[in-house]
Amino acid sequence: MERLRALVPGVMLAVLIALAANFLSAHHGGPVMLFALLLGISFHFMSDEPRSAAGIDFAARTLLRVGVGLLGVRVTFDQIGALGAKPILIILGCVAATIAFGLAAARLTRRHWSFGILTGGAVAICGASAALAISAVLPRRHLREKDVLFTVIAVTGLSTLAMIAYPVLFSTLGFSEQEIGLLIGATIHDVAQVVGAGYAASAEAGDTATFVKLVRVALLPVVVGGLWLLLRNEGGVSGAISLPFFLIVFCALVVINSLGLLPVPVAAFLAELSRWLLVTAIAALGMKTALKEMFALGAGHIVVVVSITLFLLVMAIGLTW
C-alpha cells in the first residue's frame, strides 16, 4: 500500500498529460504521441520532485513495457509474412555493422573499446535498456560508471529528437508507409520513441515499426550472450541473460491473435488500453528527458554516439532503397 501511495502522484500526472495530449490531438489533428512528448518535456522539473519521481519512473518504464507487450494484439502472422525476409536481413546487417562501427569510432576518438561496444550496442539494439544489459557483461576494470550514464542519457535524448525528425525525413524521401515503419523500427534507439514515431506517422507504420523494433530487441540476449562468452575471462563479468517480459507477451499475443483465439471485443479493448498506456508512458518519458545533461558530458563522447546514430540511419536508408 505504501508503494502504491508513492506511485500515484507521478502516474496521475502522466495520465493528466496524456489526457491533455489526446484532447489537443482530437481538436487540432496533430499526433497524440508528439503532443504527449512535448507536454511532458515542459514538466521535466516534476521528475526531480520526490512526491512524483517514483510514479513518473514507473509510468516511463513499466507502463511502457506493458503497453508495448499489448501491441501484439495488432499484429498477425499474415502481416509479418507480408513484410518478407528483407526487414530481417536489414536488421541483422544493421546491428552487426553498427556495433563494429561503434568500436571503430571509439578507437578514432581515442575512447576505450568498452565505450565503443556500449554505445554501438545501445544504438544498434534498444537504447538505454541495451546499454544497461551490455554494461552488466563488460569487465568492471574497463568500464566507467559515467560512460554508462552518458550512454543512457545520450541515446534517450537522440531517440527523442529522432522521434520528431525521422517520420518527416522518411516521408520527404518518398518512402511508403510500410517502409517508413521499417526505417523507424530499424533506426530509432528506444522502444518508446519507436512506438511514438511509428504511430505518429500512421497506424500501418506504427505496427511495422513495433514489429521491426521488437526483432531488434530480441537480438539483445544474443549480443549480450556473445559478449559474455568473449569477455568471460576478462574478469568482473556478471548479470543474467533473459528476454524482456514485454517481448514474450508481445509474441504470445501475436500467436493467440493469429490463431483467432482472441475475441474481437477483447482485442479491441486491449489495443485501446495499449494506446493509452503508451501515450501515458511517452508523457512520463518526456518529463524524464533532460537534453541539456547530454551536452554537458563532453564533446568527444557526443561525437561517438552521434556518428554511430548517423551511420545506422544512412545504412538503413541505403539498404531499404
Question: Summary?
Answer:
By secondary structure, the chain is mostly helical. Helices cover 79% and strands 0% of the residues. It contains 16 helices and no strands.
The N- to C-terminal Cα distance equals: 54 Å
**What oligomerization state is this entry in?**
single chain
Average pLDDT figure: 83
Number of strands: 0
Q: Main β-sheet: number of strands, strand sense, barrel status?
A: none
Radius of gyration: 19 Å
Uncertain runs: none
Order of helices and strands: HHHHHHHHHHHHHHHH
Which band does the percent of strand residues land in? under 5%
Portion in helices: over 70%
Helix/sheet category = mainly alpha
Key phrases:
mainly alpha; 79% helix; 321 residues
Draw up the topology in text.
Elements: H1 2-28, H2 32-42, H3 50-70, H4 77-83, H5 86-108, H6 113-124, H7 128-135, H8 145-172, H9 177-187, H10 191-201, H11 203-218, H12 220-231, H13 245-258, H14 264-288, H15 291-295, H16 299-320
Helix pairs in contact: 1-2, 1-3, 1-14, 2-14, 3-13, 3-14, 5-6, 5-16, 6-7, 6-8, 6-16, 7-8, 8-9, 8-10, 8-16, 9-10, 9-11, 9-16, 10-11, 10-14
